[in-house]
Amino acid sequence: MENLTVFFVSDHTGVTAEAVGKSLLSQFRGLTYKTLTIPFIDTPEKASDIAKRVQNAAPALIISTLTDPDMRAILQNGKAPVFDVFEAFSGPLAAFLGVSPAAMAGQTHGMSNTYDTRMDAVNFALSVDDGLNPEKLGEADLILVGVSRAGKTPVSLYLALQYGKKAANYPLTPDDLDASTLPEVLLEHKAKLRGLTLAPERLAQIRNERLPGSRYASLENCRKEIQAVEALLKANGVLLIDSSRRSVEEIAALIVHGS
Predict the structure, then answer these.
(1) CA distance linking residue 188 with residue 165, whole number of Å
(2) Domain boundary residue among 97, 132, 167?
(3) 193 shares a domain with 149
């Protein structure tokens, strides 16, 4: 199918519709499409406007997480197919649980009882980013270690925002790698350490985007640093995760569920 447009429609942020929809669509190899995320569709008027917009964008489909049955009906009465995430599961779940679902918008990503925990974790991750304030490492749930540009900062922030984990990150410098032991500031927190590594070629590519042609970004130097950090962390029993071909989400899940 050519020129397909996929609309992710939600009565809240659209995060769930996007995540589920993109995961499903990724199973269809060779499919090309453009996406539009339409959040905060919380009135019948807005739902009607979207139905008209989708009709004008044909060929198109809708992946929806609308919770209000009336607004879902407005979309379903249009000409584009609607794949409703909640409708697919809420009926069978209700039958099993013996409880009717409450049509309340924004329950997944709203101001839940974990919100403050996650925001505190984000603030913590920023305060200890890249080895800052090492005296705070005792407060950390996890400490990510690895060479510069191994992906520690985005993973630590994702761990905070998604899981509420206070994740610090500490870069291992060439001086650290020349030593036979971990930096003293990390030794007392050894159980919290999680190592990130990656292919030297990938590291060189990332570093060349920042400092092209430098020794720091050379493949030889990247290979040397990677070999040294892997040997050091393995010798200290630190879990190593290869981030070369993994997304931030995958790395975070491995850290939380695989350690």
Answers:
(1) 19
(2) 97
(3) yes
Q: What is the pLDDT of residues 97-151, one digit of tens each?
A: 999 877 665 555 555 568 889 999 999 999 999 999 999 999 999 999 999 999 9
pTM above 0.90, yes or no: no
Please name the amino acid found at residue 96: F
Residue 90 lies in a domain: yes
Structural domains counted in the chain: 2
- C-alpha–C-alpha distance, residues 172 and 150, integer Å: 10
Cα angle value 191/194/195 (rounded, 5°): 135
The CA radius of gyration of the chain, in Å to the nearest whole number, is 23
What does the pLDDT look like over 203-246, one tens digit per residue?
A: 999 999 999 999 999 999 999 999 999 999 999 999 999 999 89
In sequence order, the 6+-apart residues with CB closer than 8 A to the CB of 118 are: 160, 161, 162, 163, 164
Judge whether 2 and 58 are in contact, CB under 8 Å.
no
What is the phi/psi pair of residue 254, to 5°?
Answer: -65, -40
> 247 lies in which domain range?
115-257
